[in-house]
């Protein structure tokens, strides 16, 4: 066939439309297919951070999320929920959040709205003015019962360690 390739948005065509229509490759080689593929590629590169997933960059972003959630003293799952609600202004449905969080856990894919919040938290921490209340997070307080149990366990461990050391000193054969 003597048709020359053309872009679908041009009006000049080197052959008739019927010739192109008969050719099966029209939608894959000459029609809107290449444009749509390039548009999808551009969108994925723009919103996924460059198309090619750099494992080192992904790991750095995942580490930032972990550090930021620790600074706010919340779980990473709750950090994702907080980031979504701050970015979009509404709560995310739990099944959708679970899907996104699973991608984060297994593939280190961090959504843009989570990256944004983690950078904000780390920036505020570096400035020394991080306040969890600014991000609508109430830091957990230990209850009186938990503190008492903690003291009791600490004393028990201290007694066991002391008995072990005394036994090691007195019952060693040398």
Give a verbal description of the structure.
10% of the residues are buried. The chain starts with 16 loop residues before the first helix and ends with a helix. Helices cover 67% and strands 0% of the residues. It is elongated and about 85 Å long. Mean pLDDT is 77; it is low at 4-13 and 19-29. It is built from 8 helices and no strands. The longest helix is centred in the last third of the chain and has 27 residues, at 144-170. It is mainly alpha-helical and 174 residues long. It folds into 3 domains: 1-52, no CATH class; 55-135, no CATH class; 142-174.
Secondary-structure map:
Elements: H1 17-22, H2 26-30, H3 32-48, H4 55-72, H5 76-88, H6 94-107, H7 112-127, H8 144-170
In short:
With 174 residues, the chain is mostly helical. The protein has helices at residues 17-22, 26-30, 32-48, 55-72, 76-88, 94-107, 112-127, 144-170.
């Amino acid at each position: 066939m003597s048709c020359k390739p053309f872009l679908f948005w041009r009006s000049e065509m080197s052959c008739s439309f019927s010739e192109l229509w008969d050719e099966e490759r029209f939608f894959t080689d000459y029609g809107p297919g290449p444009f749509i593929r390039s548009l999808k590629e551009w969108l994925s590169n723009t919103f996924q951070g460059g198309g090619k997933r750099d494992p080192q960059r992904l790991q750095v972003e995942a580490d930032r999320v972990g550090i930021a959630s620790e600074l706010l003293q919340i779980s990473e799952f709750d950090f994702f929920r907080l980031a979504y609600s701050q970015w979009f202004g509404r709560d995310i449905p739990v099944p959708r959040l679970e899907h996104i969080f699973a991608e984060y856990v297994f593939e280190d894919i961090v959504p843009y709205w989570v990256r944004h919040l983690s950078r904000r938290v780390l920036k505020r921490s570096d400035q020394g003015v991080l306040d969890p209340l600014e991000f609508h997070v109430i830091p957990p307080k230990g209850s009186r019962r938990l503190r008492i149990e903690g003291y009791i366990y600490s004393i028990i461990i201290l007694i066991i360690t002391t008995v072990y050391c005394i036994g090691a000193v007195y019952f060693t054969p040398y």
